[in-house]
Design a protein that fits this description.
With 178 residues, the chain is an alpha+beta fold. It is built from two helices and eight strands. The chain folds into two domains: 31 residues; 117 residues, Barwin-like endoglucanases, CATH 2.40.40.10. The strands form two sheets. It has a six-stranded mixed beta barrel with strand order 3-7-4-6-5-8. A two-stranded antiparallel sheet has the order 1-2. The protein is elongated. The protein starts with a helix and ends in an 11-residue tail after the last strand.
Length: 178
């Protein structure tokens, strides 16, 4: 009869541990994922942004890259897209401008700023991800015509590139006209 209270005590002890472990598992499983959390923490007048765009008097854009930590580096093949998509909506709701400095990537959040360097000639351009793609096996990014021209890859159509993520985007849908 001495063993019966001990058996019940062990049962309640192990049940309490199991219940606590299940609660911990459920609570930790509901926390938000930290998949893309590379927002700039640099201080200064730029509000913490590593990349800023300015418009000149003639309407063209100047993209300035502040020095900072590169969040991710990848290498692969880039392609570009132009006429067939010009004026159509991108994945984030913007109207595609083939002359702009934008890109399509399969997984980077929209709004991410990426430096793309042509490994064959060393030329680079900073683009903003605003679309999804490329949908051709073996390619890691689709550049707009303007970005492809900036790194001199129009003639070949593709290029070996290095991608350096400078800032993760917020992934928000901006909608047409915004």
């Amino acid at each position: 009869m001495n063993e019966t209270p001990t058996m019940y005590t062990r049962f309640f002890f192990y049940r309490s541990i199991l219940l606590a472990a299940c609660c911990f598992y459920l609570i930790s499983g509901c926390s938000p994922s930290a998949r893309f959390t590379g927002k700039s923490s640099s201080s200064g007048s730029s509000g913490g942004k590593r990349v800023s765009e300015e418009k000149t008097n003639d309407g063209s854009k100047i993209v300035r890259v502040n020095p900072g930590k590169v969040l991710l580096t990848l290498e692969g093949i880039a392609s570009y897209y132009a006429d067939d998509f010009h004026g159509k909506l991108t994945s984030n709701g913007e109207t595609f401008d083939m002359y702009g400095l934008t890109a399509a990537h399969r997984t980077f959040p929209t709004g991410s700023m990426v430096r793309v360097t042509n490994l064959d000639n060393g030329k680079n351009v900073v683009v903003r991800v605003n679309d999804r793609g490329p949908f051709v096996e073996g390619r890691i990014i689709d550049l707009s015509y303007g970005a492809a021209k900036a790194i001199d890859m129009l003639q070949k159509g593709t290029a070996r590139v290095k991608l350096e993520v400078l800032e993760w985007g917020d992934g928000k849908y901006v909608g047409q006209g915004k």
